[in-house]
Amino acid sequence: MTAPKIAAAPLKHPGRFYIGGEWVKPSTSDLIDVIQPATEEVYLQVAEAKPEDVNRAVDAARRAFDEGPWPFMTPAERAEYMRAIAEGLRKRQDEIAYTWASEMGILHGDAVVRGAKIPGIYDFYASQADSFEWVERHTPAGGGYGWLAREPVGVVGAIVPWNAALVALSWKLAPALIAGCSIVLKSSPESPSAGYLLAEIAEEVGLPAGVVNVVTAHRPASEALVTNPGIDKVSFTGSTAAGKRIAALCADRVARVNLELGGKSAAMVLDDYDLEKVAASLADSTMELTGQVCSALTRVVVSKHRHDELVEALSAEFAKVKVGDPFDSASDMGPVAAQRQRDSIERLVGKGLEEGAKLAAGGHRPAHLDKGWFIEPTLLANVDNHSTVACNEAFGPVLSVIPAENEEDQIRIANDSPYGLNSAVFTNDDNRAWQFARRIRSGTVGHNAHRNSHAFSFGGFKQSGIGREGGREGLMPYLEPKAIILDREPTDAP
């Protein structure tokens, strides 16, 4: 059964930018074609921001922060706007799901489920207005009265990826808003609708002018955002290569930076765990967003004597996957988001085969689909952990099975990577799971499945990023601690 499609993207002002509380004309007539990955047809055209447009947005955000009223409101007052944003998102769930599936290729049914969770991000951070300790009382060593006040970091430049744009921008926007920051959001050219929809909701709820500003741009204009002296902090989600560039640019003026980057996460399968259960779990997570997930478990580390049996079980699971139209409820997996993305996946798989891996399943474009950027879920066996395919993020539905000598070797292999975003331990023994978790160098360790830790802390070790998103940990990067020491206690101090 195929779900009905919205004929056109439900955006009110695709040819404009949301800057300073208004929908403004761009500096040029240049447009960005947004291509539907399942059809290879133009789905939408939006205005392309140039450095002048980005600088205009930064100026608006700067005024909103420096002159108020937003940063001077109480957290409780800001929370009311955030709850209104959450309600606005709930009212537009159908549009969110359709645009997400149309722009990125995620299964429409999956987009419906995931989209329904996004308003909760704003509700959670709104709840911090009352539960977070914004000002702490201290006793200075030299006498007097002391407080530690946590104040907004300032103007935030938020750069979000194409794979889950509304999710990514919400984990940045919501904590920044409750903290009292103003924001310039740079949307991805592949999936700009999330930013536009959010801007429309910000306008509807009466968010003060300049608190949220939205533009869509390619890399040159993105660098203008990062290097603009009006930006106090950059929050970026994307590739490690781009993250390194942003970190270098921020270092030049000591701008604050948060980086949520790539991963090559390991799933360690211990000898006591059922391999069919492992295969079912990993096949399911591989189909998630067509494998275009930074925290995907793409290195499967298993004892050498169980390697072939696990490969067989995974191959059987992959054979069941129906690749097809993301709006068809019978599809298990949609396309990847762009032609260049599929080409990159195919090159990496080809390199893996050249370096000695065995193709156990998939690896090709589905024969029944002559249009769209589809690729089969792909399984490589007998992969060397130092090979190209084991060291580089495919950002697609590709698993590499790596044989290990024993459990110590599994830990060594898991940690022998420049990345450290996610991982998982498959075992029936809770104590061994805990012991493995404490020895793995990654920001998240799951048990018997791919786990999402955004509810309390998500981020990576090593080249997987700097800082954390989600939960109270995700609020801290948008705050600056200020020590205040006074001779006497003022009457209005907490």
Automatic annotation (TrEMBL):
Keywords linked to the UniProt accession: Oxidoreductase
Active site positions, chain numbering: 260
Domain Aldehyde dehydrogenase span(s) in chain numbering: 23-484
InterPro entries the UniProt entry points to: Ald_DH/histidinol_DH, Ald_DH_C, Ald_DH_CS_GLU, Ald_DH_N, Aldehyde_DH_dom
One Pfam family matching this protein: Aldedh
SUPFAM superfamilies in alphabetical order: ALDH-like
CDD domains, sorted: ALDH_AldA-Rv0768
Family membership: Belongs to the aldehyde dehydrogenase family.
PANTHER family, A to Z: ALDEHYDE DEHYDROGENASE (PTHR42804), ALDEHYDE DEHYDROGENASE-RELATED (PTHR42804:SF1)
This protein's name: Aldehyde dehydrogenase
Protein source organism: Streptomyces aureus
